[in-house]
Design goal:
By secondary structure, the protein is of the alpha/beta class. The chain has helices at about 15-25, 40-50, 65-70, 90, 105-125, 175-180, 225-230; strands at about 5-10, 30-35, 55, 75-80, 95-100, 135-140, 140-145, 150-155, 160-165, 170, 190, 195-200, 205, 210, 215-220.
């Protein structure tokens, strides 16, 4: 991990600071930025200092850990550290990712850090792209948009490709290889050097051909294994 996780400890007990700082310093990807002894100090510090992870005690004078979480507009991810478990359920409403009961043992500390990393990985993973619902293809001098769900299969036709749909057949200025790159692999598969088929339109399959709307389409030996695997899992 190249970027260190910036941590703070907020706890009124020096003994808790001793244990947590020791655990944090044992892990090179964690950086202990500051140690605070009450909720007011934490509130002031967090106003001007971005933090990745806060180890927060619940039972503190003046401002409790729960009151601090309720007050902070931008809460860092938080692991609660306390001798009491009665606030566990309420705490998860404020984005708390784990709950460590004192005395805190090192293996349990590491498990809480793993929860933090898992949550970070999920939040920072790229949003899945919405799959296209249509494709624009050149037919003569015009560009025509065809719904992917309407396509049954395509067939090489010299320097063109015939695109068979539910309603009609188009002769498109494109090669089968170029067209294959534009069609989502989750919906279409090459069955032969000359054919691409819509997976969900396959009605039956034989050893050498497949059937789409009573049309027999050959299965090339190069593509047979992939076709069989796809049919098995769809």
């Amino acid at each position: 991990m190249t970027t260190k996780i910036k941590c703070i400890i907020v706890d009124d007990e020096p003994a808790a600071h001793y244990v947590l700082s020791d655990y944090i310093n044992k892990n090179p990807f964690l950086s202990l930025e500051h140690q605070l002894y009450n909720g007011l100090e934490a509130m002031q510090y967090l106003t001007n200092n971005p933090v990745d992870l806060m180890f927060l005690d619940i039972d503190m004078p003046e401002v409790t850990g729960m009151e601090l979480l309720k007050t902070l507009p931008n809460k860092p991810k938080t692991i609660l550290t306390t001798a009491y478990s009665e606030f566990a359920l309420e705490s998860y409403e404020y984005g708390v990712i784990d709950y460590l009961l004192k005395p805190i043992f090192y293996p349990r500390f590491l498990k809480a850090i793993a929860h933090f990393e898992d949550k970070n990985a999920i939040e920072n993973s790229p949003e899945p792209k919405e799959e296209a619902k249509d494709i624009s293809l050149k037919i003569g001098s015009d560009m025509v948009t065809i719904l992917l769900d309407d396509i049954l299969f395509t067939q090489s036709y010299g320097n063109y490709v015939k695109v068979y749909t539910m309603k009609r057949t188009y002769v498109v200025t494109i090669t089968t290889t170029e067209l294959e790159k534009q069609l989502p692999s989750s919906l279409f598969v090459r069955s032969h050097k000359s054919y691409i088929v819509a997976i969900n339109k396959i009605k039956t399959i034989d050893k050498d051909c497949l059937i789409i709307q009573q049309k027999s389409i050959p299965i090339g030996i190069t593509y047979k294994r992939e076709i069989m695997e796809i049919i098995k899992f769809n």
